[in-house]
Amino acid sequence: MKVVIAPDSFKDSLSAHDIAKAIASGWQKVFPDAEIIQCPMADGGEGSIEAVLEVCSGQWREQIVQGPLSESIRAKWGWLDAKKIAIIEMAQASGIQLLQPSQRDACLSSTYGTGQLILAALDAGAQNIILTIGGSATNDAGTGLLKALGAEFLDSDHNPLPAGGIALQNLTEINLDQFDPRIQQTQFLLAADVTNPLCGPNGASHIFGPQKGASPQQVLELDQALSHFADVTAQYFGFDQRNETGAGAAGGLGFAAKTFLKAKFRSGVEVIAELNQLATKIQGADWVITGEGKFDEQTLNGKTPFGVAKIAQATNIPVIVIAGTLGQNYQALYEHGITAAFSLTSGPTSLEEACRNAAELVSARTTDIARLIQSSVLKNHEAH
């Protein structure tokens, strides 16, 4: 029997690596001789680098950069030396988790630190840079990142604009004379599942601004500022990508990446699956086991179990999901390659308790599932 274990992390609890280990341990209690392949996964959000480095024997690198509000922080990024690929997780330098709720300021927060990580990757000789852009604290349309790479954004007096999205309302001139020339020789890939445009009611400011600290009035002002930035950018380049799919990702960083870095967009889980060679690993498998903290209809929006199931479905391999909780309309995933889904807890328990005991709960639930499969295997044996 061959089993491939490819879960995401359980947020605020265990990493994808630890979840995979717990599933393997539970399965082996029933099937000690099974061939088990652990392949920790992610979908482009926090934990993406860890999932790839775990499988691809990459290295962690560290850099002191500016955080979302210009404070000095230590951020990590991933390096695959053999392929000269850098993996940069925007959340490491410009993530919302770096700020207390009271500190969040969508008007002033900046992506400058993410740009500094790109510079570090270029200095290391990166030929390909994968940028995962989940969990941002910013709404500056990626201008902070571009400033770190040498771009200048000037007002009518030729003064550089201060950090943050709101300042873009005063933009009159873009100067790329000092823009890092290595950008032209580098392939950029954005791992993102956000499809929103840059501006408008479904854009970066309206949809994501409030969770980053923007008041209703500030949301309107930010949307206008980003729209003005897109106007000036379109004038400079001769084309306008504000309505492209994903332009509103990460507070508009998607727009900057598409326009200034010529970045390609792909689903985060597809990028991670490709780097981890998941499709190759599941060939000939009898079962694939995946999971995430909350499994519900939102999983359809390109989250890890959905991506894993899509790959397994291509070769008709059954997929089991083990989740912290099963949420609203999770059954919709049964039409997309998921065979069955199970939650961790068998009775009432607090979230804190479930997070604390996640490894034991995951292992125990896996053992239950394996026992069910074992009884079915034995019956088939007897019938023949």
TrEMBL record:
**Which positions are tagged coiled coil?**
none
Q: Does the keyword RNA-binding apply?
A: no
InterPro entries recorded for this chain?
A: Glyc_kinase_flavodox-like_fold, Glycerate_kinase, Glycerate_kinase_RE-like, Glycerate_kinase_sf
Q: Which UniProt keywords apply?
A: Kinase, Transferase
Q: Does the keyword Phosphoprotein apply?
A: no
Q: Which family does it belong to?
A: Belongs to the glycerate kinase type-1 family.
PANTHER family for this protein = GLYCERATE KINASE
| The protein's name in its UniProt record | Glycerate kinase
Source organism per UniProt: Acinetobacter proteolyticus
Its lineage reads: Bacteria, Pseudomonadati, Pseudomonadota, Gammaproteobacteria, Moraxellales
